[in-house]
Structures are given as structure tokens and as C-alpha cells.
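=== RUN LOG ===
request id: a7f3
mode: sequence -> structure
chains: 1
length: 440
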Amino acid sequence: MRRIVVFTMLLVLLSGTVAAVHNNGGSSSGYWVDVATDGFDDGYYFIVWSNESGAFGALYWVRNNTGAKNITIDDSGKAMEVGVASKMSELVSGGSAEDNKYLVVWERDSDGHLYGRLYDYQGNPLTDVFQIYDEHPVGDYVGVSYGGGYVVVLFGRASYSARNELYYAVIDENGNIVDSGLLFDGKDRYTNGGAIKYLSLGYNPDLGVFGAVFRVADDSGNYEVGFLKFKLLSNGHVDTSSIDYTPIDPATSKDAYHTSVAYTNGGFLAAYSRSGGTSERLVWYTCPVYIADDGSVSLGSTTQLFTDYNAGHGDLTFVENGTNNYLVFVWELRDNPDDNNDPFYLNIQRLKPDGTLLGSAETLIKESNSKRNPAIVAKPAHSPETYIVVWIDDTDNKVQNSEYFYDLSEVSTTNEVPFFGNMAVAALVLLGGLWLFRRR
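=== RESULT ===
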């Protein structure tokens, strides 16, 4: 009997405890969060957020969704938009987690400048804080993505003289700025218009192409959603001949709000929300963007995802598993759009590469507290695929995160992503069982 008790205790100790949704530092309601991962089962994911005190981050283990390190990125004062990009963000076909680097980008509210800092795979800083661009102030949204050996940062500028202008900076893997400047001048389309907003940036590793989705305002109070593609030269400079802007949704009086973009086979999937539907509530749409071998851009059919929801922020990620590739979309909504006290919660929807629905929407997390501003990234196609989500608990003023399997069960120390370490645990359990059997 004693041996059975000892063996049972061994199993309990090996299993660990179940991980819950994680609470991080205060979000100062309304600010930004982002997430990136190295993509390895025995690697990490890195969440970042901004608040009244600065920009902060936390590193978590992918295999069991437990915290590894809390990171102070910049505590010099209030930070605004924030983003993070991972070197190993593409489908991992070689290398290891140790090869990864993260670049974090944020705006300091005190001077309106954009700053960056480079980290290694374990969240150790490789550079001091550095200024990314001389001109300021930066606009409301920043896009950041790794691709082709460099990190690209896109941003608008919040000044009248720079309306409808989109700027860029290219940063190498050592934190050096190798190219920067004006990428898109919307004044070619509209004389004044408004600031470029609701910016999202992605990279297609198969095509070597960056794709951005954002809102452009015209001179008459109308708003269009556009797609901008471009490539880098081998030295990290933007290939100006590759720049091409395509309107996705023509200008209308109904404002466009949030956007997201993720790469797919043959191009990108753009997602955006517009006011519309019942009582002018926000409605999300998707539109596939196809890029031919000659660089020409064509659009697929637009799909309206949901109706009669007061939908807010949302985010896309691509799951390339080699057999039935798909995308995952997470967004905030509430049951009673006419009640401002009704809490937001998070839903998740799988999509086909053409942007149409794949199955039904499922609730990711729903509580009495309001959940806002979600960001999502999928761990690339090792087995099994998982989804990493970060959001703001708008009620308790906390940044929260978790990692989910396909069935939306949380990854935990008792339900780990398989890797070699689990084989070692299994071997210990087997040896313990054999010992018990032989002693009997």
C-alpha cells in the first residue's frame, strides 16, 4: 500500500498544477497590447503592453503556458502604441529557439517619438532603448513585422502637414536602422484628408512581400480601406519599384475602424470593420489579396463575418500546418450593443484562406469583467498547433494572456505541448510502474 501511495505522489508531482489565465501589470485602460513567439514547442512567447508608466513585457514558456520572466522595456513615462516582432515568426523549418530575437517598438507620449529595443530569445536586452525615426509626433497606430532578415516598422504621423502619409523604418538583427522614409503619400489620392489610422502589417515568407492594411480619409469626410504591398532589397532598403497601393473597400461615409492582416498561401487576408448594419454597429469583413509572380495585386470576394454585434478590436493569425491551412480570428463583442455597461467578451472564429467561415464562432473567454483589445499569434505547425492570445481586462485594469489548444482548452503544466521533456516524464512514470509491479 505504501508503494502505491508513493507512486501516486510521484504522478501528482510530475503533473504539476493547472495554469489559469495570467494577470500582468496594469494596462491603464485603453492602451495597447501585442504578442509574438519563436514558434518552437520548447520555446517562448513574448507579450508586450503600454501604460501610464511606460512599456512592459513578459516572457512565457510555450510548452506549458507558464511565466518565465517579467521585463521592463521603458519606464520613463507614459507609452502609447506598442508592438513586437519575432525573428522566427515564419514557419520554422530549421534552427532553434536560441536563434530567435524580438524587437519591441513603442511611442513615448512625452515627445511623440517612436522607440525600439532588441531582445534575445530569453528576453535579455541586446540594445539600449533607441529612437527609430527623427520626425514626430507618431500617429495612433504602428505596424511591426519581421521578414527577410529585417524588421519593418510602419507608422503614420499625427501632424497636419503629414496627413495621409505612411512612413517606414527598416531595422537589422543588430538593432541598426538601415533605411527609413516616406513609403506612401496619400496626397496623391486626396489633397488633405486625415491621418492614416488602424494600421496592420504582415509578411508573406513564401513571396518575400510585406502587406499593410489601413484606413485612408479623403477630403470629404469619407473613408476607404486600402492595401499596400512592398518588398525589400537584399541590403534592407525598400524596393521602390515594388510599392503598390490597392483600395480594398472604396471610400464611403461609413467610417472604417479596426484592421488586421495575415499572410496566406499566395498573398494575404485583410480584415477590417466598418460602421453599418443594425443601429450603425461595427461589422467585420474579410477580403483576400492575391499577389501574382509579376507582383500584380488582385482582390477576391469580400465576406461579411458577423451581423448585429457591437464588435470592436480583432486580430488575425495564419496557421500553416501543411495539410489544411486556415486562419484564426479573435475579436471583442458584447451581447447588448445598446447597453454601455454590458461587458465585452472574446470570441474566436476559424476562417478559410479566402476569408469565409470555417465552422462556427466559439466563445474564448466570457466573464463579468470586460475583455478588450485582443491580439493573437499561432505557434507554427509543430504538433499540435496552439493559439496564444493577450488582451486587456478593462474592468480590473490588467493585461491578461493564455495559450489554447485547437479545442480551446488552456495549455497548462498538466496538459503540455508535447516535446522531448514529456517523453522523459513518461519514461519516469513507466519506470515507476515497473518498479511497483516487480516489487509486488
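=== NOTES ===
The two ends are 10 Å apart (CA to CA).
The first helix runs from residue 2 to 15.
=== END ===
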